[in-house]
Design a protein that fits this description.
Blueprint lengths: L6 E5 L8 H14 L4 E5 L5 H7 L11 E4 L2 H14 L2 E5 L7 H9 L2 E6 L3 H20 L4 E9 L6 H7 L11 E2 L2 H8 L12 H17 L5
Helix pairs in contact: 1-8, 3-4
This protein binds adenosine-5'-triphosphate and magnesium ion.
């Protein structure tokens, strides 16, 4: 798949702990599993996904993600080169909409993915993130946005949550990440659920479905 155009996906949320790093790393693992080349860029000064990957050298190097830490300014300067290097570039961002790195991510992204933990508080605070993305989309024809339910407790979203999701203008992905030990566990070994083997089969299926939904949002035929 190398030689394609380097699609840039930014994982954005104002809310700390919504699952930006988790989603970015699992997405990286999912693209890797479909044999696409992927770079994971850590724009969070907390260096979360960077530290995560640093603890990974014990793992099979075939499954290891290429994670790079940089500032928003470096991202802007290097984006064309990064795009020529990989099929997908996944950006993990800090939990602030006004942070220069978040701004830089939105300036270069084709798709902003907003993880939201279903529940009234998170859903309402996510409306502010959505407003920012919609505003950016008015200035950039390249940018699209979507909502990803994360830490979903039951297989089906509860009807009151579904009602709240209707408040969003951006599409809510037909994919979700459930609340699963496998996601937290893979973080401990510095990897995605694809490195946990058959025991994480359900989580792997979920991430594959997420990758498919993301590719559809990017306008790729899947
Ligand atoms: N789907 C999930 N299932 C189980 N645990 C999850 C899931 N998503 C996130 N978590 C856990 O929730 C915590 C916060 O997730 P994560 O670090 O990805 O959030 P974040 O948005 O990157 O946070 P920050 O804003 O601090 O960077 C972590 O301990 C992570 O393992
Ligand atoms: Mg994080």
């Amino acid at each position: 798949m190398s030689g394609s155009s380097g699609r840039v996906i930014a994982v954005i949320s104002q809310k700390g702990g919504a699952g930006k790093t988790t989603v970015a790393v699992q997405l990286g693992g999912g693209f890797h599993a479909m044999r696409a080349s992927v770079l994971l860029i850590d724009l969070d000064p907390q260096e979360s996904s960077f530290r995560w990957a640093e603890s990974a050298p014990l793992l099979d190097s075939d499954l290891q993600l290429d994670v790079r830490k940089m500032s928003g300014l470096e991202l802007i300067k290097q984006i064309a080169a990064l795009q020529s290097e990989a099929d997908y570039i996944v950006l993990d961002t800090p939990p602030s909409l006004t942070h220069p790195s978040t701004m830089a991510a939105l300036a270069v992204a084709h798709l902003a993915v907003i993880p939201v933990v279903p529940g009234p508080t998170d859903l309402w605070s996510t409306l502010a993130v959505e407003r920012l993305i919609l505003n950016r989309m008015e200035h950039s024809h390249r940018l699209h946005g979507c909502i990803l339910p994360n830490r979903v407790q039951n297989t089906a979203l509860a009807s009151d949550v579904l009602d709240l999701l209707k408040e969003f203008t951006l599409p809510v992905l037909d994919a979700q990440l459930s609340q699963r030990n496998a996601y937290a566990q893979s973080a401990v070994v510095g990897a995605s659920v694809f490195q946990l083997g058959a025991s994480a089969d359900a989580a792997q299926q979920e991430v594959r479905k997420l990758v498919k939904a993301i590719r559809e949002q990017l306008g790729e035929t899947v």
